[in-house]
Each structure stands twice: as structure tokens, then as C-alpha cells.
Amino acid sequence: xxxxxxxxxxxxxxxxxxxxxxxxxxxxxxxxxxxxxxxxxxxxxxxxxxxxxxxxxxxxxxxxxxxxxxxxxxxxxxxxxxxxxxxxxxxxxxxxxxxxxxxxxxxxxxxxxxxxxxxxxxxxxxxxxxxxxxxxxxxxxxxxxxxxxxxxxxxxxxxxxxxxxxxxxxxxxxxxxxxxxxxxxxxxxxxxxxxxxxxxxxxxxxxxxxxxxxxxxxxxxxxxxxxxxxxxxxxxxxxxxxxxxxxxxxxxxxxxxxxxxxxxxxxxxxxxxxxxxxxxxxxxxxxxxxxxxxxxxxxxxxxxxxxxxxxxxxxxxxxxxxxxxxxxxxxxxxxxxxxxxxxxxxxxxxxxxxxxxxxxxxxxxxxxxxxxxxxxxxxxxxxxxxxxxxxxxxxxxxxxxxxxxxxxxxx
Length: 411
What we know:
By secondary structure, the protein is of the alpha/beta class. It folds into two domains: 38-336, CATH 3.40.50.200; 344-402, no CATH class. The chain has helices at 8-15, 45-48, 51-54, 104-113, 146-158, 175-186, 258-275, 281-290, 298-301, 308-313, 337-343, and strands at residues 64-70, 88-89, 130-136, 163-166, 190-194, 212-218, 236-239, 243-246, 252-255, 345-348, 357-362, 369-371, 374-375, 378-379, 387-389, 399-402. Helix 6 (175-186) links the parallel strand 4 (163-166) and strand 5 (190-194).
């Protein structure tokens, strides 16, 4: 390699010289910016989702409001200064929601939009252009009725919420709550909810409602946390273990659970809306889903684990509305990394019948590692075992498996 100082004409002449392989500009690269918030060093989840690749390089020109439907928000917290706009309380028409007798809502607000680069506390996922609007729908004990939640969803939709965050769950389906979510979706809101912390695959709501991004909780290793709910109501996953955030009264807390994971997705969605003001809610959801990182299985993480860096760089206008769980939908749609992998895999024969030996080749996996093959939900033994991929994400040679007796025929 050689470097030269040259005019544009000189560079063109070099490019036309048959003895020169190529001519490129000697570009300047700069280190990524890092916030001066002292607690940032403990915020492992931010680089995990690619936040560090975005901060300092993406400066949102617009704004976005996240309605935090919760126990209220302590707006007097120094690390939330200027990032909380008046909301409401369904329990007190004279309240703007800016107090928090429980603390849960303030935890969510800090993850979403803690002031960033202010030399204080922690960094928020929505580091610029993102504001929190508290909508108090849960009592001081952290519980609330569907009627109050429905009122809160409607209020948020009518008062310009770009994102609605509901970090609570219950396995009971409500047609009236679904109608409220449908209304919020029709008004352009990205609606996000936690799947719950019982380690169960039973669908919960509102995570399982149509139009809701249901979020499960992954750990440091991108594995589903043992406490996280999962299943057909899960559309996306995000880190939710050991998450630093603001606490009511002015301090800080470290929390875990799907509430924290859902708040990370809400902050990401809001930052995307502030950065791409013309993007509809369906476009934002589509970008989140398509650009997720493979983690666990589709059952565990839906479309995968949140990757903010790729999602915010996506300019696709394809729109997606989460289908929801029964009785309103069948989960998905799944458009994330698992679909991309499946498109690169070759099966021979393409139809598997009980007793058949099927050969698998190809790939498109995100990295090297072991491949798990399931049939009707049962993990199969492969030959060789384990089936592995190379550094290029392709299966090493081929792998074979036998379709179990008693299985359904499939393609």
C-alpha cells in the first residue's frame, strides 16, 4: 500500500494506470463518543444493543414522547430533569402523574430517557429528543384494573404519544383492552408491553394483544432469563438483567425483569421516531423486528434481541403490525434473523416423513457455533453431533437427522 498527496485529476490518472490495483481516499476515522455519565460503565445492556454505535453519531432532529403507563414518575429526579412532560393520573384528575409513590414508573422512565451526557448518574436509551409522559394507571401497590389501563391507553393516544409503554401483565384477555390498543395503533403509537416474570409460556396481556410488541428478557449471554415469560406473545427481546436506572427520591437502582427489557425497547423505538419523524408505527416495528440479533429461539425471543444500531440505520418502509396471541392472532409476524437463516438452508429431501433421513446444508447464521434442529418442537440428534457452523455462518459440510416416528409430515 502507498499513500500520496494528489489532486482529483491526479487520482483519476492513477486509477486509469493498469499497474495500480485501486485508488481510495485516505479517510479519517474517529472513536465513538462515550457519555460522561458516571454510571455508564455499569450499563452493560447499552453496548449489547448497539447503543454505543449510535450515541455521538446519530443526532435526532425531531422529538418523540413515550407514555409510561405505570405508577407515576418522580419528575423531580435530577437525572430526569427536562425529560418529563405533564401527563395524568386516572385516580386524580388534578394530578399530572409527576409523582411516584411506588417507584416502578420512575425505574421505567430512567431506562427510557435519563438525561445523557450531563455528568450525572446514568444514560438513557433515548439519549436525545425523547420525553416521558407519565400516565398513572397503577396504584401505589403496583397493581391496576383493566378499566384504568384502558383509560390510560386512550389518554396517551389522544395526547400525542409516539410510544406507549406498559410494563405489566396478566394472562386474562380483555376485548375492551384490545379495542383500546387498536385505537392507539390507529393513532400511530408504537405499543410495547412486558411479557411477565413467571418463567411461563402462557400468553399474557397486553403483551399478547394485536398491535403490541411483547418483550421478553435476556441476560448478559443473550440467553432467555429464567424468570422471563416467553411464547407466542413474544415479539422481541431485550436485555433485562442488572439494569441501572433512576429511583424515586433522587437515587438510583439496579433492577431485573421484563419491565426493564420492555423499557429498553420503548426507548429505542422513541429514539428511532425522533430520528425518522415520518416513519409510521408499523415502519418502526418492522425495522426493530428485521434488525434484531439472533438469540435463543423464536419461542423465547420472537424476532430476536433488540439491535438499535441496525434498526435506526434501516430506511426500509415495510410496515408490520404484531399479530398478537390467541384469540386475536397466531404470533409474529417473524421477519428477524431466524427467517434470514432459514432462507439460506437447503434440505434434501424437502419433505420429511417419519423415518426419513434429511440432509441439511447451507446457512446464513450470524456467527460460528452449534446448530439446534427441532421437529414438532423436539430437539433432534444430528450426525455429526453437534451440527456446527464455520466462521462464515455456514454449516460445516452437511448435517443429517432422522424424522422421528409418529411425527407429522412437514416441509
